[in-house]
Structure prediction request, 185 residues.
Amino acid sequence: AMAAEEKIREATGYKEEGNRHYGEGNFKRALGAYHKVFCYINGLQPPPPELSRPAAAASQDSGPGGAVGSLAPAPGGSTGQQIPRERVEEVQRLKQSTKLNMAACYLKLGEHQKCIDACSTALECGSSSKAHFRRGQAYAELRNFAGARNDFERARELAPEDPAIVAELRKVREGFAKGDAKERR
Prediction:
């Protein structure tokens, strides 16, 4: 089996390949490469939590098969699939940025629901103005102005100086106003 370090390297290579395709306007190809990133990093395990000695000793009286047993790595050395502690953040960032790039592809391809899902997954890795911005754009395309406004407002809180966000918010508010006017007719 490939060691975690190698898998992270392969995954990063596929992300770069996806970025190249994206830059050439080849969004379907880019998605293919971005999907491969997850083939490499999805099976990786987080490192075990760092146990401070006293706490570990204390938890031993949690009865048979208590917490202590479950933290031990499985026999057979599955540690090769464990993300080295110093790479954990990098892998999170790789997951998030790849999902965000996939969201951008879906937006370009008019696959708005897939864009929304990709952004939501990206947000599970941490907050991101880009994820809120792209999800807001997809919601707006689907005429879900409430969802769009919500996301653009979150994006603006995270990146107050970004003019694109302000512009989208203005559009969504106008869309809202038009929608309301239609309903009042």
Remarks:
- The chain is about 70% helix and 0% strand.
- The chain has a mean pLDDT of 86.
